[in-house]
Structures are given as C-alpha cells and as structure tokens.
Amino acid sequence: MSTPSLLTGEELEAADSLAGRGPAGRIRVTLRRVAGNKAAMTGLIVIVLLFLLAFVGPHLTRWSYSDIDYTSIRQGPSGRHWWGTDGIGHDVFAQTVRGLQKSLLIGLLVALFSTVVASLVGACAGYFGGWADRSLMFLVDLLLVFPSFLIIAIVSPRLRSSGWIALVGLITLFGWMITARVVRSMTLSIVERDFVTAARFMGVHPARIIVRHVLPNIASFLIIDATIQAGAAVITETSLSYFGFGVQAPDVSLGTLIADGTGDAIGYPWMFFFAAGLLVVFVLAVNLVGDGLRDALDPDSRRPRRGKKEPRRGHE
Amino acid sequence: MLRYLSRRLGYYVVLLLIATLLSYLLASTALSPRGYFEGQSISGGKRVSSSSVDKQLTAIGINDHTNVFDRFGTWGEHAVHGNLGKTIDDTSVNAEFGRRIGVSLRLLIIGLVVGTVVGILAGAWGAVRQYRLSDRAVTILSFLILSMPTFLIALLLKIGAIKLNQMLGVDLIKFTGEKTPNLAGGFGRQLTDRLTHLLLPTLSIALGTIAGYSRYQRNIMLDVLGSDYLRTALAKGLSRRRALLRHGLRTALIPMSTFFAYGFLGLFTGATFTEKIFGWHGMGEWFIDSINKNDVNSVVAVNVFAAVVVLFSGFLADALHAALDPRIRQA
Q: What is the pLDDT of residues A225-261, one digit of tens each?
C-alpha cells in the first residue's frame, strides 16, 4: 500500500528493521506517523478524555442522571451541582456524562457494524461480479434513494420498547452504502492482481480469499472510514434524538439534552452549552484523527507536490 | 449522450417505483392511525365505538384491517391519476402538498446554489493559496462546521440572532416564519422583510454544504494544479487566471458531480430541521408533524417527494457529468 519513496528516512529504517515481523511492523510505522501529526494526536487525546469523562464521570458525582433535587431548580453551576441543574432539578453534569456515554456507545457500535457490512457487501460485489454485483449494487442504490432519516423516523416509534440497540441497527442499516461502493471499486482493482489469481487457481475458497487477501489490502481505507463513520453516527443519533425519534426518555443522549436545553439556552446557558459543546468537540476530534490516519495509512492521498505527478488510485 | 441519459432515467424510474412501494408498506405498518383516532376520542371526553373509528379509517383508506397490498393498490391507482389521498384530518394531501412544496423548494434551491457555488469557490481558492493563512482559516472553519449537526448550527444561529437583537434593541434579524404576518407596505418593504427572514435558514442549510464542498474541491483542485495539462496550458501562453478557470476548474468539477447527487439528500434532511426550528411551513415540518399524528398518506407523500428530489438531483448530476466529461457521452 505505502509507496516507500514517500517514507522519511527514519521511517524507512523502522520499516526495514521490522520487515521480518510482518504486520506488526507496519502498525508500528503507522503509529509513529500518527504520533507525528499534531492535529491527530490532539484529537486522539481529546477522544480518550471524553471516554474517561463518559465512563468515569458518573461515579464522580453523588447525583445520578435520574435524581431530582427539588431544592435547586434552574440553578447555575456550583459546588453542589457542578454544571448546574435543569428545569426539574436534574443534575446537568450527571445527565450530560450519561448522555455522552450513550452517544459515544451508539457512535462506536454503528461505526463497527456498518464498516463490517460495507466491507463484506462491497468485497463480495467486486469479487464475484455478474449478477451478485448487479443485485448488491441495486440494493445500494435503492437504500441511497430512501431518505434514511425519514425512514428511521417512521420506524422508531415502533421500536421504542427495544431501546437504543434498535437505534444502532437502524442507523447501521442506512450507513454503509457509500463505503460499500468504494470497497467494491477497490476490490475490482485488487482482484486483477497476480496474488489473487494465484490463490484462485490454487483452489482457495472465495470467502478465504476475500478475508485473507482482499480485505487486508483495503484495511487502511476501512480504518479511516470507520473513524469518520463514528462521528457521522453520533451526528445522526443526536439529530434523531433532537426530534424525539432516537433515544427515548427516561434515557438521555446528547441529542435529547440539547433538545431539552434549547428553550433555556439564553437565560440558563449551562443547560444547553455543555451538551452542545461536548458533541462538537467529540465529532471534531474524530474528524481530526480520521484526517491524520488518512495521511499516515494512505500516503497516496497526500498532496502531490507541484509539477511532480504521483500515480493516483482510482476511487470511483 | 441522449442514449446514456435516457438509460439512466429508466433506471431511476424503476428505483422510484420500488422506493414508493416500500415506503408505503413501511409507513402503513409502522404508524398506527387507529391509535390516533382512539386517543382523540378519549381525550375528547366521549368514547367512540371501534366501528366508527373503522369507518373513518376506511374513508381515508388507511384501515389496518384491510390487506396492506389492497390499500396500496387503491392508493396507487389514485396516485397515478395525481391524487395522493387524504390526510388524517380528512383534508386533501394534494392541497397540503401544493401549499408546502414552494416553501421547501425556495429554501432548498437557494441553500443549494449558495452552498455549492461558495463551497466550490472557497475550495478552489484554498487550493491555489495552499498553506497560507487564508487557506488554513477556511480549513479550520470547515472542520468546525462539519462537526456540527444541522440542527445545532440552526440553533446556534438563532441564539446568536436573539442576542444580537437584544444588544441592538431592534429586531434586526427575524427568525420565525417566512415573512412577518400582516405586514403593510410596498414591494420593497415586503422584499426586505422576506430577505431578513431568509438569512438564517439559508445560512444553516448552506454552511454545511459550503464546508463539505470546499474540502472536496480543495483536494481535487490540488491534484489538478499539479497536473501536466495545466502546465501545458500555462506554457502555451494562457494567463494564470484563464488557465485555472478554463482548464483547472472545469476538470476539477467532474468528480464533484457525484458528490452533488449524494449531497442533496443530506440537504433535504437538513432542511427538515431548519424548517422546524425556524417555523417554516414546508415539507420537512409537515413530515415531522404527520409522523407524530400517524398520518400515513402525508408521510408517504413526503417520502415520495424526497425520493423524486434525490433521483432528480442524481439525474442532474449524470447530465452534468456527461456535459463536462466527453468520455461518458461515448459510453
């Protein structure tokens, strides 16, 4: 994947010394490159901090997200309630970290599932070709035509009882198609290579070829895409929850918190801006990491210097 | 070129028919208008017998005791003749559609044009000025905007406008509805009023588009800037501006036509939030309200509208692609 000429001398040495150890060497080179990217490192640290906040935060405060403190309603941040209280006396800190937890979990799971679906569908369409390709791509087109947000909104009242896991399934269902297209076109170019032909003539089972030979060769694209997907999934989830089609009360997510705080955003900003700020910070961090990973894993995508043309990989 | 375009059109029509069928089935099975009527009768104080509810449901053609394919058959027969059925309040879907479509299209088209043009120009400009301060500023801004859901952008704009109005003591920026109701005055006054109402909704739709397009356009433009044909164009004596516009931008626009098709769907979804937040009575607002009222026919109508809009923009993207790239026309 990585064209050696684009590596720095130091990285070349690292690659050489580790060459005998297989994939671990490449991972280490990649990590070093990501570590050198300031924006990506900042993003990574922010993501780790947010996860800590989401999973440790609830244990730091004595309030639970569902506790109601009747003695303080619409109070600003104080020692008693770190981020203030809302209109019925919920502790905003407890609610926000709980909402963050839910939003992060949904984002992660959707990214994982939709990448798996996209890589399997795309690789199968590209590898088998023919009617399998045509019908899978028809499915992709069909799902793309559906306004996914509208469909999820229609179905979600029915799934209220199954909770947020159903929401993960729904967002995944409409989140994999564009990735699948790119995977398909990348697979098409890999299938023509000699090592795949060799494996095929040796009688290796197609499923094994896809898993062992095709997918590892597009792994870097999949990792980058999964990162971006996590951010996109959080955006979708909060948008749905904002309208009441996503996470349902009494459970909270960043979207429901923003929706509840909107009316009071001017007079009681803490009800709105903590949740909104965390949402933006998380998605921004994810996007920065995605961008940094792209530079590290996919040197082809780096800008060619002026006047010197690099061969480009054909996406679509 | 015509053969290529008509083949694409045929494909889109098939997609549209299947999408219509599926969204009808989905809306009919997932929503429960029966519950709406029963709830209404309870809150009205008098219990309505289930036979009377049945009668109302059948009159609208959404009785869940009828086979769903039969219901689709009846609906489809009317739909082919241009009648989209009745809303749950027994009014005509067509009338509601007609009232709202203009509002949505105004918002969408202005947002799309502003977003696309400004986004592409900003991206191309950033590429030409790579790594300078202005390029970095555009990059950071677009990253920030891309990290915000449309509803959050709209909310922040609204909050900012309220603060600004408070600070100035006058209602400089208006953010409720499409125009001030019962405003007296001549054409000029009406126009300014509309424009001040239009500002925030358009911005909240266009900002995301601008940010996304400028990122794509910048990357593509950078590739073009390093290409041999642009160097040739410069070498044969074209001015830099002319070479960039005639040879650079045109080629850089080709891959953008694909993003254009997908981007429109996002724009439509974004418009739903914008309409709801700024109180515009368009298709998006109608959709959210009809879901909450379990209004099957209205929900299907909006879905079909969205599918038509998406396919139309896909077709437009194909036409654009064919117009810009001669290789497609031969295929």
A: 898 889 889 998 888 888 888 787 778 888 888 888 7
Average pLDDT over chain A, rounded to whole? 79
Domain-embedded: residue A239: yes
Q: Please, what are the averages of pLDDT over each run of 10 residues along chain B (331 residues)? A: 85 88 86 76 64 77 78 82 80 86 87 88 86 85 89 88 84 74 76 83 89 86 84 88 83 75 76 86 87 86 86 82 74 53
Residue A168 covered by a domain: yes
Q: In this structure, which amino acid lies at residue A115? A: T
- Tokens 């898993």 belong to which residue? A211
Q: Output the six-digit token pair for B128.
A: 């030409």
Nearest-Cα residue of chain A relative to residue B290: A154
Inform me whether the C-beta atom of residue A276 falls under 8 Å from chain B C-beta atoms.
yes
**Of B223, B268, B287, which is closest to A304 when you measure between CB atoms?**
B223
Chain segment A150-197, per-residue pLDDT in tens? 788 888 777 777 778 888 988 898 888 888 988 888 888 888 888 888
Give the type of residue at A277: G
User: Residue A264 maps to which CATH number?
Assistant: 1.10.3720.10
Residue of B nearest to A289 (CA): B143
Indicate the helix (H) or strand (E) that contains A135. helix A130-145
Q: How close, in Å, is residue A161 to chain B by CA atoms?
A: 14
Whether the CB-CB separation of A316 and B258 falls below 8 Å is answered with yes
Contact B31, B296 (CB under 8 A): yes
Which alpha helices (H) appear in chain B, and where do they start and end?
Answer: 2-30, 33-43, 50-60, 68-80, 93-128, 133-146, 150-168, 187-225, 228-235, 240-243, 250-253, 256-278, 283-292, 296-324, 326-330
| Full-model pTM | 0.81
Beta carbons of A272 and A254 less than 8 angstroms apart: no
Specify the number of domains making up chain A.
1
Q: Are A14 and A29 in contact (CB under 8 A)?
A: yes
Which of A151, A235, A266 is closest, CB to CB, to B149?
Answer: A235
Q: Is A304 part of a structural domain of the chain?
A: no
Q: Report yes or no on A35 lying in a domain.
A: yes
Domain of residue A35 covers 23-63+92-298
Buried b (16+ CB within 10 A) or exposed e, A149-183: bbbbbbbbbebeeeebeebbebbbbbbbbbbbbbb
- C-beta atoms of A145 and B146 within 8 A: no
Closest residue of chain B to A138, computed from CA coordinates: B15
